[in-house]
Amino acid sequence: MMKAKATMPSNPVASRDFVNFHLPRHSNNGSKRSRANSSHSPSARLSIIEEDGDIPPMPNKAHHRPFHRYWNLGDPPRASFEKSPPTYSVWDEKGPKGEKLSEVRNNKHIARRGGWKRICFIAFLVIAVIVGLAVGLTLGLRKKHSTPPVWPQSPENATSTSNTTGPFPAGSYTLTTFLDTVRTECSSQADYWSCFPYHTYPESASEATANFTWIIIKSGDGFSVSSTNNPWSINFGETPLTMVDEGTDDERYQFTTSLNKMTVPSTGVNCFFNDTNLEGTLYTKKAPTYPSSTPAAAPAVDASSRESNDDFKPWPYAVDIRQTIGGDQNVPECFRMQANRKGDRITDGITPQPANSVCSCEYRNFAP
User: Fold this and answer.
1) When comparing pLDDT for 294 and 79, which is higher?
2) Is 97 exposed, middle or buried (0-12, 13-18, 19+ CB in 10 A)?
């Protein structure tokens, strides 16, 4: 059964009466809306939708609409080029309950790798390392300034670190001598053997001085001696001293050792006299006569009451030091040096000499 359709009259006045008559009034607001709607032109009024009719198609969105409205993105943030954006700090970030650093606390990388406990542990390690370095450097510098300097020594002939204080002759001494004699028979090339300072006392008394710096230490029931660096290659390690003629006027300590003596006969050429014998004699009562300012006689002092210290003080008695080597097949071994390294060996002009052909350097501080 078809329902009756209401048709609006074409007369505006009749239309108003028709609406007021047919539409129910629910409230005053509805009447106000009706009066408001009646003020518009007829073209703006909604058409009557028939119950059995089709729904009118939805109109297309206008292309000139703003971008955020076209895609339903909401209103954009309000900003002005005349004002700077508001300041932001990670310390201002708060969580739902007002806690600080919520973003950092809830960061998935931090949460995955142990969270705040791991961060605190790493920070503790860093602080501990810094404090350790600071304390170590402070103690190291303090120890460096409080430790007395050590006299330079040859790496291969380093002396013992035993105490040099004690009964005589323990101590550090400078032995002032002169080059007395030089022999060169062990080599067919006489200039391959040389002795510092390259002038004997008969040649020049003022240019013949040679100083040795030796250290004597208490070693067991006796004493040992060793050298420090010196320019004439008489370097040796800790060697026992032997007492000879004890209680007599010729009482003395003696030692014997071997070393590799090097000479430089010409530029770029080094010669090595391996297993050169070194003999030393330290008198304990005999007075020196060189240099000339040395007293003719030293006062006799009981050895048990004599003490020494670590300063390099002059040895107060006579000294006799000798370097000797006999001829042999490999005496000497000479090389051309390349960047401080041995290059080609030199054999031209070098003829082996018999063992009784001796090369020597003899130093002393008293007249023979």
Assistant:
1) 79
2) exposed
| Cis, peptide link before residue 148, omega less than 30° from 0 | no
Token digits for 112? Answer: 């995955």
Q: CA-CA distances (angstroms) from residue 39 to 45, 46, 49?
A: 10, 13, 21
Residue from 184, 205, 204, 185 nearest 195 by CA: 184
Rama region for 126: left / alpha / beta (φ>0; ψ in -120 to 50; rest):
alpha
- Give me the pLDDT at residue 324, please: 97
What are the strands, taking DSSP E only, across the chain?
166-167, 171-184, 209-219, 222-227, 239-240, 242-244, 252-266, 269-283, 307-308, 312-314, 319-326, 333-338, 341-346, 358-364
Burial (0-12, 13-18, 19+ Cβ within 10 Å), 279: middle
Q: Identify whether the C-beta of residue 225 lies closer than 8 Å to the C-beta of residue 241.
A: yes
Helix (H, G, I), strand (E, B) or coil at 137: helix
Q: What are phi and psi of 276, to 5 degrees?
A: -70, 135
Cβ count within 10 A of residue 100: 13
Q: Provide CB contacts within 8 A for 313, sequence distance 6+.
A: 171, 172, 173, 174
- Map tokens 């018999």 to a residue: 354
Cβ atoms 321, 363 nearer than 8 A: yes
* Cα 67 to Cα 62, 73, 81, 154, distances in angstroms: 11, 8, 20, 87
User: Would you list the DSSP string of 285-324?
Assistant: SPPP--STTS-SSPPP--GGG-EE-SSEEEP-S-EEEEEE
Q: What is the pTM of this model?
A: 0.54
